[in-house]
Design goal:
It comes from Streptomyces vastus. The chain has 189 residues and is an alpha/beta fold. The chain contains six helices and six strands, in the order βαβααβαββαβα. The chain is 41% helix and 18% strand.
Length: 189
C-alpha cells in the first residue's frame, strides 16, 4: 500500500519517521512530507501558532503538492492530529484514494463531500481535549453520510498524541494496540 503520512503541529518529529519505518517494515511505501519545512516544536501551542502563521490554505497547498506525484497510485492518506485534519481533505477529493487512517484527530467535512465506500479508520484518546465526544459523534455521522465506511477506536486514559514516545501523552499499551489494528486495516485494503 502507498501511504501519504502527515505530521502533527509538532512538525516532522522522530516519532513520525519511526511510524513511517514501522509501516515500511510491514511492506508499505510511505511518504512523510514536511509541511513545516524543517521546523519542529516542543509544545503544541508553539506548533499551533506556527501553523496559524503559515495559514490553512498554504498548508493545504503544500499537502496537495506533496501528494500529487503519487495520487495516481491510489494512496492511503494518513496523519497525526493536525495531519489527521489534513488527510481527509485530500482523501475526500481524490477519487483514487484507497483509504484514510487518522491518528489523534479529525477535521471538518465539506457538505458536498462524497466518496464510494472509502475505508476510514480513526484512533483517538478517550477523553481527548481536542476531539470531544459530541464532536466525534457529529464527525462520525457526517463522514458516514459521505459514503465512507468508518471505524472508530477509542483509548481510555491515553493522552492526545499517545503514539509519540517523545511526548508526555505517550501510552505504550494504547500505542501498540493502535498499530496492531491500523496495520490490520492497511492489510485489508
Amino acid at each position: 500500500m502507498d501511504i501519504m503520512l502527515f505530521h502533527s503541529t509538532y512538525g516532522l518529529r522522530p516519532a513520525v519517521r519511526d511510524a513511517a519505518d514501522r509501516l515500511r517494515a510491514a511492506g508499505h511505501e510511505v511518504w512523510t512530507p514536511d509541511l513545516f519545512e524543517g521546523r519542529t516544536f516542543e509544545t503544541v501551542e508553539e506548533g499551533m501558532a506556527f501553523k496559524d502563521e503559515i495559514g490553512k490554505d498554504e498548508l493545504l497547498k503544500r499537502a496537495v503538492l506533496a501528494a500529487a506525484p503519487y495520487s495516481e497510485r491510489g494512496l492511503v492518506y494518513a496523519g497525526f492530529s493536525f495531519g489527521a485534519a489534513t488527510a481527509p481533505t485530500l482523501a475526500l477529493g481524490d477519487e483514487k484514494a484507497r483509504g484514510l487512517l487518522l491518528l489523534h484527530g479529525t477535521s471538518d467535512i465539506a457538505e458536498n463531500a462524497s466518496v464510494d465506500e472509502l475505508p476510514v479508520q480513526l484512533h483517538v484518546a478517550e477523553p481527548d481535549p481536542f476531539e470531544p465526544d459530541d464532536w466525534l459523534t457529529a464527525w462520525y455521522l457526517r463522514m458516514g453520510r459521505t459514503g465512507a465506511e468508518v471505524e472508530v477506536y477509542r483509548y481510555a486514559g491515553a493522552g492526545h498524541l499517545y503514539t509519540d514516545p517523545g511526548l508526555p501523552d505517550y501510552d505504550n499499551e494504547a500505542a501498540e494496540a493502535t498499530w496492531r489494528v491500523a496495520l490490520g486495516f492497511l492489510d485489508s485494503l
